Amino acid sequence: PVMNTPANRTEWAELIVKEMSSASDPNDTRNRVFRILEMFDKCAANCSTPDEAHKMREMIIATILG
Questions:
Q1: According to the model, what pLDDT value does residue 45 have?
Q2: Which residue has better confidence, 7 or 20?
Q3: Residue partners of 21: CB distance under 8 A and separation at least 6
Q4: How far apart are CA 40 and CA 5, in angstroms?
Q5: 47: closest CA among 33, 35, 58, 62?
Q6: What mean pLDDT, rounded, does the chain reach?
Q7: Residue 50 main-chain phi, psi, to 5 deg
Q8: 3-class SS string, 41-59
Q9: Which of 15, 37, 49, 60 has the lowest CB atom count within 10 Å?
Q10: Positive or negative: CA dihedral 12, 14, 17, 18
């Protein structure tokens, strides 16, 4: 399934919750995490400056860790 790239902290949190609650077993969970991390990496790579990428990474990590 194609996932839209989240635009903000709330959308990242919703994506993570949705994906984890939809997982059917540990392998499915792992695969879903890998897809989310790939999206995260692509978002960071598309940032126009290192500072922007750093801020985006901090926002995502804060979302994941609460």
A1: 82
A2: 20
A3: none
A4: 8
A5: 58
A6: 84
A7: -60, -35
A8: HHHHHCCCCHHHHHHHHHH
A9: 49
A10: negative
